[in-house]
Design brief:
427 residues; Rossmann fold; Nucleotidyltransferase, domain 5; Four Helix Bundle (Hemerythrin (Met), subunit A); 3 domains; six-stranded parallel sheet; three-stranded antiparallel sheet
Length: 427
């Protein structure tokens, strides 16, 4: 595949840099330091290693205000990346990278018809339209972005989407800032759906191994066996031996679905969550916990870092959190503490000290209320960013999952108003 594949690469450089800044230094760090020399956070080598595996890179363009990105100079020059300067329009204005990149992609695809694949490195929903245009031209578009900040509709617009953390795993180096948990059971549901589609298309009760992954990617562009601790798709299938059987016939691997799961109600499997909002969160690897566990965990987290300031790892944090909860007569399992850690992580509540290899709370978390607001706002944002805008917001449900009952509608409406204000400032 790679031999005849001609690739064009476009970096919305500031977008992915901001996302990694939020993960490593706190959500507000970049906003407060955007006009200072920036640290080198993007591992350009890893990304380019992945892209090189796709085929021959014919075009490689990166867009940013390069005045403050000197730390990346060596890596950018090592791959002969064409740097396009974009000056921001005012102190808080957008640099217009999305418009410029979209125009360049269209022009390059029209003027260079030999291009097969477009790689766009960004998590911005502004690129949905250009992804649709690229696909209309019969070309493949692959997105790369940071999972916590990438718009879900942008992901769906791509033929394939790679999370930055997945590329880190694929390179064999997994860092603490890339610590994201994926649910193997959900991947098995995706596998079952792909198999049933193939069975229907071929009128057979088996599928060739090589045909399965492309269908899974059509159903979910973010699927990547690396996320489930597998170095190959075959290894992933081996992990799913409770639902499938693998046989070798004439040197081809043939995949059968085991009888006990062949007649499953796939819809009930896919829609195991009881509420549309819960399904939205589940799709984004966000797992909720009961209200009493959530509320006590967030206040206990603030206490832990108020006493300790810094911890050596996320595992140490989870152990201390479990101890704190026991002191409050709250029984939390390992799964519960993992979910809490993930919620805090995705709400940019942690700050990484790269030199000391420690974690602490983000500098702008000063009170227990701050940490709760941050997590609640993240949950609200993940839901409203991906909900059908034609339906009324279910305030009662949001009140229940965030505050334990339906009596906190005013608090929920305040969170929604804050979300709307932030969203309007970005447009």
């Amino acid at each position: 595949m790679a031999e005849n594949n001609n690739v064009a690469v476009y970096w919305d450089f500031e977008n992915i840099h901001i996302s990694l800044c939020s993960l490593s230094k706190g959500e507000s760090w970049y906003k407060n330091n955007m006009f200072t020399r920036q640290p080198e956070l993007i591992d350009i080598n890893r990304i380019m290693e992945f892209i090189s595996g796709l085929g021959e890179v014919n075009i490689n363009k990166a867009y940013a205000n390069w005045s403050f990105f000197h730390a990346y100079s060596f890596s950018l020059q090592s791959y002969s990346i064409d740097l396009l300067q974009l000056f921001p329009r005012g102190r808080y204005g957008k640099n217009g990278a999305d418009i410029r990149i979209a125009i360049d992609i269209l022009e390059d695809c029209l003027h260079h018809p030999h291009l097969n694949t477009v790689v766009l490195i960004s998590g911005d929903s502004d690129y949905i339209s250009i992804a649709q245009k690229v696909r209309q031209m019969g070309k493949r578009i692959i997105g790369i972005g940071v999972q916590e900040t990438t718009n879900q509709f942008w992901i769906k617009a791509c033929n394939e989407f790679k999370f930055y953390s997945s590329i880190a795993r694929e390179s064999g180096v997994v860092e603490s800032e890339s610590e994201i948990e994926f649910d193997l059971d959900e991947a098995k549901v995706l596998l079952k759906k792909a198999l049933l589609m193939l069975f229907s298309e071929t009128s057979k009760d088996y599928a060739l191994r090589v045909a399965i992954k492309p269908v899974m990617l059509r159903l979910d562009p973010t699927f990547d066996e690396i996320n489930y601790g597998c170095s190959s798709f075959t290894e992933f299938l081996n992990k799913c031996d409770d639902i499938i059987e693998t046989k070798e016939i004439d040197k081809d691997l043939i995949i059968f679905m085991k009888d006990k799961v062949a007649n499953i109600d796939l819809e009930s499997d896919l829609i195991s969550a009881s509420h549309p909002y819960e399904r939205i969160l589940k799709k984004q690897q966000i797992r909720l916990v009961p209200y009493d566990v959530l509320s006590n965990s967030l206040s206990a987290t603030f206490e832990i870092f108020k006493d300790e300031k810094e911890l050596g790892s996320y595992l140490e944090f989870r152990n201390k959190l479990r101890e704190k909860l026991r002191g409050r007569n709250i029984q939390a399992s390992d799964t519960d503490t993992a979910k809490i850690k993930s919620l805090l992580y995705k709400a940019f509540s942690f700050q990484l000290n790269i030199e000391n290899k420690t974690i602490s709370l983000s500098d702008d978390i000063k009170t227990e209320s701050d940490i709760k607001y941050r997590v609640y706002q993240m949950i609200i944002k993940r839901i409203l960013d991906n909900v059908d805008g034609s339906h009324d917001i279910d305030v009662d449900y949001l009140s229940t999952i965030l505050f334990g009952d339906e009596q906190h509608q005013d608090d929920v409406n305040e969170l929604i108003a804050d979300y709307n204000n932030r969203t309007s400032q970005l447009t």
